[in-house]
Amino acid sequence: MHRIWALIDRETYASFWMRIMENKGLPYFLIMGILAGLCIVGIITFFRERKANYAWRWIYLFGGAYVLFDLFAIAVGLEVWQKLLAIMFDIHSPYWNLIWGFFILLGTAVFILGIILIVKKKKGISH
Question: How far apart are CA 61 and CA 45, in angstroms?
């Protein structure tokens, strides 16, 4: 949900993330390492919970696979991905609010799902 910053201050948001991705310094490796680790744990959870067949577990597989691909494409400088990032971080784009608004809504939905699942687990409710 940090992407709310993108709607508040486009220029600073875009500059910050583009600098992180271009410099590939310690912050880059920390962020990418944490994201990759969480994705791997999510994919493991998908397979670990295969017998329960909860509908939400597919988010772990597809979301994790997408983010791992995204991290890989950024790390190796995949040309098509670099062009996509340039479009996404174009602060003059008329689609800026649509793009980042979508990511904010998606992040919020997944956050709420996580809270619901934690509450259900604490109450001992399956599904």
Answer: 9
